[in-house]
Amino acid sequence: MWRIFSGLVTLIISLLLVSFYVKFSDGQFARSITVDSNGGGEFASVQAAINSVADGNSDWILINIKAGIYREKVTLPKDKSYLVIRGERPESTIIEWNTDMEASLWTNSSNLAADVLSSATFTSSASDIVFQGITIKNTYEGQNGPKAAIALAVSGDRTSFYSCRFIGIQDTLCDNLGRHYFHDCYIEGSVDFIFGYARSTYENCNINTVPDKGLKAGWITANGRRSLDDASAYVFKSCKISGSFKTYLGRAWNKYSRVIFYRTDMSNCVVPQGWDHWATPDKGASTTFAEAECSGTGADVSQRVKWEKKLRPEELEEFISTNQFINYDGWLDKQPH
Length: 337
Prior knowledge:
Keywords: Aspartyl esterase, Glycoprotein, Hydrolase, Signal. This protein is α/β, with parallel strands linked by helices. It has 7 helices and 26 strands.
């Protein structure tokens, strides 16, 4: 009898070990956390789940967020890395807040960048992060013209986004610092709604323009590349631009601003000039604003600004090859998704 009992115990332990191995080897998760606003998980808020992760974490942890509207301002600090933040579906898993940057800060602040970032619904400062199936929204609507009201501010390196939505009006997505990959995402706004200093690829993303009070046209991008040695650039591959508001593809936040659109479908919401040099001292001459193999009525380049760049095939390849541009060390291949 003891031998039979001992054998059963050994078999059960073996099966449990196999199950454990398969779960964590295939999924690469050392821990799984469930967030449910209705009380069906370990935590009712996204912030509480993030807070439960140990500082200096080095193992992949999955944070599953159940469908619901999470009205909270979320901060992911830089010492909580290796997280997969996964919603059920972007249409039903929504994190939203309605903070804007106070008007007085535009002229009185000694740290304007930090004050602008403070408006974000979700601030992600850690490296090695994956977002999936989530909407992040800033619901603020300015009463007297546009104000900075960020949905997501991302400053960590090696961060990827799959099937996510970012919704706002001005400064929706602060693509601030680091290397980032956006795939099958939806981004909505009117003024500089993709801006910052990061080095990012946007692939198969939908970009939608919405009206802003007092403006005749908006700007999709405001890349802040500061020098010729700065690696910052925004690259859009096989994306779609549409919407109800006229828009420039981008304006130069700094003198060496760099944005490339490749094989992107552009509706007639894109203005014929395409680009705006903004306040650059050389009126856009040092920027790298380029388009290649784009389609749609908005892709007609016959009236584009004369300082738009024409990249040689080898120059273009350095940007449109994800492996060359942001994945040269293979970080994307190592992430669970």
